[in-house]
Amino acid sequence: MKHLINDTKFMKDFFFFMNIQEFSDYRDGDFDVEDQHFRCLAHVLNLGVQDTLKMMEIQCDIDNVYPDDIENEFLENHSSESEEEDEDEKTNISSTDGYTHFHAACQYNHDDELDVVQKFLELGQVDPNSLLPKTGDSPLHLALTEGANQLAALLLLRHGANPNLANGKGLTSLHLVCSCLVDEDFLELFYDMGSAYSNRPLEIDITDDLGRTPLQLALAHGLMITAEFLLRRGADPNIANASGETALHAVCKFPSRGPSAWYYNEYDLTLMLFECSRDRYKPLRVNARNSKGKTPLELAVANHMPDALEVLLDHGADIAGFVYPAANYVDDELEWIIDVKWRELLGALLCAKRLAKRGYELIWSDALKIMKMFARYGFFEKSDVDLQRSLLDNEGFASRAKSLLVKEDLRLHDLIQLQRPEEVDERVTYQDMFDFVKQDISRFEFDKVGAQEACAVYICEMMSKRFFQSWALYPFWKLIHCRLPLEMCETVLANLKNEDLYHICLATQDQSRDDSKKDVTASVMNCDNNKRPRESEDQVAPKRAKISYLLLNFNYYLGGQFTIIRYMVSDEHKTVAIARYTITETKIN
């Protein structure tokens, strides 16, 4: 080997094959060479694959060669040279961890380059069911990783690959098929060939180490065609996994906000599950609880899925035992996407509204869970920023917004021009805006991401204003020790941003853990200054005259900060903010 190191051409070959070694992890234990890269080259020389070396010198520019192309060429050349039995045995050289050339061909080949896999199988010296010791993956598992090599998978099935083999995680090839987007033709072929050529039926309800069935994986990824295919062939939707979750739970766990979210149709998917189960006489356990005690309805609300919620309620979901869950937030890697957060917030508001229409009485702590979502996602308009003016003054945004229809008779630009929350509520509903955002607004090509975020924050601020005001009213009244009639309190709150309203609710929460608006009202009615939650206009007028131009201060303590908001209340029932400042507590005695 030493004299070869001084050969310029050979060293060129050496660095060329370093790419193969690093990509495919080939090793050859027969050569006593310490350096792993030399073992790779020695292995190649031992096989006598000179054609590949010539290909490197004549046809290839080293800097522009892709490792998978090199590997495919390498495998094709050395497999085609094996005609004797002893050469056949060399064809499937194994690495130290059991990873063979055949495994590499199944994993890294592409659908339009199946010759390598086919030649291995025709030689008859490879086992289509050989498992990798480390992971337990079969060649069929490797071919179906992310659905990348579907034709190779069908070829393996034709040569006796067992589709029911499980890897180290308990995943069969059907689990892998149900975790990626494939067409119905492939599903038909895979199902038929998997049963015919292996002489054993395809286990459609087999579970992995986490107790998940192929159906549960298909539903969790939003793969409606795959899920319906399995249900039509007898998949049981009521099997519970290790966490006690059935197929219906899987539907109501929005696909962890991953790539599947872009084509996830919660309404159609949930409705399809109920209809297929009814057709197969396998009624769904609509109120089944998982190991954490959550029903599908509670998961749908936690994941802000109003359309799934509607289907569940239409099919018998029990609202009497419903407990409003804490919100599930999007994954950190997706939290930067504005329309994902926008959709989440609108979905949460829409879920609350639909529950109320079906008879559920929203309580104060439920509303606070929704408010916390706005804080987590940063969807609060700041007091010192006029988002409406900045959006309308942005010519690029304004031009694009004029072409976007929120609904049939309302353009986005017209919506932003509305001045008051009441006007917004009259023109657009949560459902209208939810449907608009579901279109993936990031494709609307605003000039700047900042404009898109400002648009989302401003519209959310306007649409949720009345929600925040209604739930902050009694906490605010309590904070000011009931010194003003509720009518004036409403006027004061109308001039506050949602962030202030949220902080008022938090401050009241720190003082009292009352769970409902009724409880808050009852505690407020014990105040000395005012025993009644509401008073008539005749009762309010004299008091209003007495407090004309009263300087009203209210403050709250939260997270080491005292926030003071000062208002002038006039006899015209109007308020003007004259000061707002925050004092940070730097020392606690």
Could you walk me through the main structural features you see in this protein, from its secondary elements to its overall organization?
ANK repeats lie at residues 135-168, 210-242, 292-319. Keywords: ANK repeat, Repeat. By secondary structure, this protein is mostly helical. Among the domains are: 1-85, no CATH class; 356-584, no CATH class. Helix content is 52%, strand content 6%. It has 30 helices and 5 strands. It has helices spanning 2-5, 8-24, 36-47, 50-59, 67-80, 85-91, 101-108, 115-123, 139-143, 150-158, 173-177, 184-196, 214-220, 224-232, 247-251, 266-279, 296-302, 306-314, 338-357, 364-377, 387-393, 395-401, 412-417, 421-427, 430-437, 449-479, 486-494, 498-511, 517-524, 537-546, and strands at residues 405-407, 410-411, 550-558, 561-569, 575-584. It has a 3-stranded antiparallel β-sheet. The protein has a two-stranded antiparallel ribbon with strand order 1-2. A hairpin with a 2-residue loop joins strand 3 and strand 4. The longest helix is centred in the last third of the chain and has 31 residues, at 449-479. The chain is elongated, with a radius of gyration of 33 Å. The model is unreliable at 1-67, 78-90, 256-260, 513-535, 539-554, 556-562 and 566-589 (pLDDT under 50).
Task: Look at the helices and sheets and give the structural class.
Answer: mainly alpha
Q: What global shape is seen?
A: elongated
Average of pLDDT: 74
Give the strand order, joined by hyphens, for the main sheet: 3-4-5
| Helix amount | 40-55%
Major pleated sheet? 3 strands, antiparallel
> What proportion of the residues form beta strands (DSSP E)?
5-15%
- Can you tell me the residue ranges where pLDDT is under 50 for at least 5 consecutive residues? 1-67, 78-90, 256-260, 513-535, 539-554, 556-562, 566-589
User: How many strands in all?
Assistant: 5
Q: Note the total helix count.
A: 30
Cα Rg: 33 Å
Q: Could you tell me how far the N terminus lies from the C terminus, measured between alpha carbons in angstroms?
A: 77 Å
